Amino acid sequence: MKEDGILPLHKPRGMTSHDCVAKLRKLLRTKRVGHTGTLDPAVTGVLPICVNRATKVAEYMSAYNKTYEATISIGTSTTTEDQTGEVVEQQNPGNIALADVQKVLESFVGEIEQTPPMFSAVKVKGKRLYEYAREGITIERPSRKVMIHSIELLSDPEYNSTNHVDFSIRVTCSKGTYIRTLAVDIGKSLGKPAHMSNLTRTKSGPFSLEDSFTFEEIEQHLNDEKPAEELFLPIEQALSIFPAVTVTSEVEQKILNGAVIEETKELSNPRSAVYNERGECLAIYVRHPNRPGWVKPEKVIKIH
């Protein structure tokens, strides 16, 4: 199979992102398959998968803003900050007023600081935090700034059958945001222990859950002997976050050869996606670090 593109996968609960890639390699019969940002096994939602030549753009896709729908459970905190961990603290949540929840959610919009959870893939001193956590070691980890673009309350706080007060939110945020940490911090602002009890990613950059395929749909499509590329979205869609610049056929040849070219007003962006007259993305260009007034290819996308 030589088809290229982005396959928006509806990741099921219980599989790691790596598991999804391994399964798709077998289904699509190609080794060049890669994901664009890890989702925990307990999390469902859109996971854009790069196939063949599209793997060249995976690094840009991991920087997308993401949108999630999450359920926050007030009354219990856990070791993992979600429903999979062991209970750390338990407290009767009492009555939580809707107005208080709305006020707290508003306080988290904008740039905030987060400390990554111990059960996470962040590296500290050359070792992933979850490796320390599995050994029962808690270490100091650096906080980092993330951007919460918006938080919308989807359901009013109400008691569930396990004596927690639950409410659901929709969050649009920057790369690197931990929604389970956000859930814990929201609980702290309400004066209660909390954890994230459910999470679905509904959007990753320009790719949404509505456009995504389940494994069952992919398998049925292939079993019906339909072309795999019908499942793919174009590489160009993945790069729509960058300013687009169209060049002539003469300049196209230079770009395909990896040439440094003169900077124009259109190419003066920190990063530009350069297209030919047929609408195919040729390369990603950036300002030249040593030659003012020139730009260089950061990555050539289209090959001869």
Automatic annotation (TrEMBL):
Q: Which organism is it from?
A: Pseudalkalibacillus berkeleyi
- Please state what the protein is called: tRNA pseudouridine synthase B
Q: Which UniProt keywords apply?
A: Isomerase, tRNA processing
Source organism, top-level taxon: Bacteria
Cross-referenced SUPFAM superfamilies, in alphabetical order? Pseudouridine synthase (SSF55120)
Q: Which reaction does it catalyse?
A: uridine(55) in tRNA = pseudouridine(55) in tRNA
Which gene is annotated as encoding this protein in its UniProt record?
truB
Functional description taken from the UniProt entry: Responsible for synthesis of pseudouridine from uracil-55 in the psi GC loop of transfer RNAs.
Annotated GO molecular function terms are: tRNA pseudouridine(55) synthase activity
Question: Which segments constitute the tRNA pseudouridylate synthase B C-terminal domain?
Answer: 180-239
Quote any Pfam family the record assigns.
TruB_N
Q: Which ranges carry the Pseudouridine synthase II N-terminal domain?
A: 25-179
- Report the active site residues: 40
> What EC number(s) does this enzyme carry?
5.4.99.25
Task: Give start-end of the signal peptide.
Answer: none
Family per record:
Belongs to the pseudouridine synthase TruB family. Type 1 subfamily.
